[in-house]
Amino acid sequence: MGDEVGRDGDEVAGRLRVRGACGGSGFGCRGCGRVGLWGRGAGRSAHAKRLAGRWGAATRDHEDKLAHFDKMGTSDIEITMSPMPVPNMMESPTTSSIPMTPLQSEFSTSSSSNKEAENTTPSLYTEDGTVDFRGNPAVRATTGGKKTTAILLVNYALMNLAFGGVAVDLVVFLRRVLHQENAEAANNISKWTGTVYIFSLFGAFLSDSYMGRYITCIVFQVIYLVGLVMLSLSSLFFLVVPSKCGDGVGVRPCRPPSQLGIALFYVSTFTAAFGIGGYQPSVATFGADQFDESDATERRSKLAFFSYFYVALNVGSLFSNSFLAFYEDKGMWIKGFWVSTVAVALGLLVFLLGTPYYRHFKPTGNPVTRMVQVFTAAFHKRHIQMPPGEDLHEAAIVTEEDYHAGNTKNPWRLCTVTQVEEVKCVLGMMPIWICTIVYSVEFTQMASTFVEQGTAMDTNLFGRFRVPAASMSVFDITSVLLSVLAYRFVVAPVASRFTSNRDGITDLQRMGSGLVIALLGMLAAAVVEINRRRRVVAMDQPSPMSVLWQAPQYVLIGASEVFMYIGQLDFFSAQMPDGLKCFGSSLCMASISLGNFASMLAVTAVTGITTRRNRRGWITKNLNYGHLELFFLLLVGLSILDFILFVAFAVIYKGTVFKDGGKHISIDI
């Protein structure tokens, strides 16, 4: 049988089809990465060379042709190589696989070619495969770049102004208007915020697979607008009764809401959550799409985009956390909700104004299906022994059964090497991503326990001026804005003198720094709570300790965001294959989502355990009788363990960064 297989292999014409920059979802390139013995597509440049090298199909003559793939744009090129034998490495006639080894050799273009490419005058059109709104190749001078991202940043700031207008005082709304207790309100906030960010996965799926970023952004902004209109109307007619009830001084308590009013409240808030959740990952990736990495100037602008993107988020939140929180604290809930509604309507209008100037990547198909195909094919070929480091590559091996049964065209039995690399890329990042969830548990405390702690402190300043507890998050926002500037113009330049990284430190080092700073923020919150309870005079009254003592914990959490969340956005954007870019952005938001759900579980578990035997517990309706500081210290302990795991995973992680016009280079990060 071995001779028979060898003869069959002699008849194979090694046809390698190479699709250019916008052909699909290649790993590490702006193109489709389908490569196989039977001529099914290919990736770009370095990836195609690596594939050809592993199959042993690239002669010196063909190597010269492959070295020029990057210069051939998006057109399809087909190279037909001379027939060649498939090596017969079967040990016995009973062996069931044709000995196709996974791709192993890797070719690279010469340094002179790279220099020549960098010195070439930029072309009229973008080189990353983007198109304009008519579907034509995007003209570099009239589309994308800073002008379109400026529009997107304004849009994003308005959307987050609206989000903050609802989220910042929602825990107070639940307590004063819906008459919920502290633990219940904190859990409901965690559920709602977690739902917001879990919907980001759904939005990313639609964006990457079917609808594209532009349409996805529009659809979910409309849903967001509908949810806020419903919230404003339900509050007006069913919840905030009498008018301006639920103020901070308790002069006008609200009537208990009806079941219909409660139902409308949850339907409207979760509709808004669905809208903002699906919108966020799409707009983040859509903004990055406006820069062509093949152009050095645009590539540098793209590196700065995520920092300004996070600044826009906090600029919008600054208004809502100050002015809107002030009005809502006086019982003007309906006015605050309508301001948020108008902000979303304006943001949608601004987004539509940029339509003629945006650059678009076409959807690449269902990434989940491609990933499941790899696991299915690998399971069917689990008997194949693979060398270390080549896990899952059996899915790309042509077995004797595939060869004779015609399974070479069945994607559930034979996958491309690019598909395998995509899956391995995602799996490799999962340990890093899981470690960010504990950080999100700490982050979500600003919208729940920090606010509850602030309401139990003296919120009066200068005698008569009263600061809403929710407005203390202004310190968080200010810290974010200042930290972004400090990092870009002070920390990064200084650090780059001692490292080989022009950004100062790597994304993983940046994320690790965020974990440490957040840990210090939780420790500061615990110290404040200990001193707050010590100064209590009357157990049924707030502590005379000023709410301004909360400023350090907000400042530390804000500084940690700059390191953690901007680092996450950069990391997942750079490491994800092109067909999963939105999925990469959504991972950051999914981390926040799971962090909120984990916070809810932690509060529930702590309350259940600490209230046994008729004890008051740690998180009580009146915090003067509780021990909130112990909850904060529990989070500190979890953060220390999480940081140790993060460092361990970061040390062994081998990532892929994309440089020089999309070529992928495996490095240690």
Structure write-up:
The chain is mainly alpha-helical and 669 residues long. The protein has 2 domains: 2-121 and 366-415, no CATH class; 145-363 and 423-668, MFS general substrate transporter like domains (Growth Hormone, Chain: A), CATH 1.20.1250.20. 59% of the residues lie in helices and 4% in strands. The chain has 19 helices and 6 strands. The protein has helices spanning 2-10, 45-54, 60-66, 111-119, 145-167, 170-176, 182-239, 259-289, 296-329, 333-353, 367-380, 400-405, 417-443, 449-455, 473-496, 507-534, 551-575, 581-610, 628-652, and strands at 15-18, 77-80, 460-461, 465-466, 654-659, 663-668. The strands form 3 sheets. A two-stranded antiparallel ribbon has the order 1-2. A two-stranded antiparallel ribbon has the order 3-4. Helix 13 (417-443) runs parallel beside helix 16. The longest helix is centred in the first third of the chain and has 58 residues, at 182-239. The two termini are 47 Å apart. Residues 1-120 and 657-669 have low confidence and may be disordered.
The SSE order reads HEHHEHHHHHHHHHHHEEHHHHHEE
Terminal CA distance reads 47 Å
Low-confidence parts lasting 5 or more residues at pLDDT below 50?
Answer: 1-120, 657-669
Give me the CATH fold name of the largest domain: Growth Hormone, Chain: A
Task: Sketch the major β-sheet.
Answer: 2 strands, antiparallel
Number of helices: 19
Q: How many β strands by DSSP? A: 6
- What CATH architecture of the largest domain do you see? Up-down Bundle
- Which descriptor suits the 3D outline? globular
The pLDDT mean sits at: 76
**Compute the gyration radius: what is it?**
28 Å
Biased composition (Low complexity): 105-114
GO molecular function: transmembrane transporter activity
Family: Belongs to the major facilitator superfamily. Proton-dependent oligopeptide transporter (POT/PTR) (TC 2.A.17) family.
Biased composition (Polar residues): 91-104
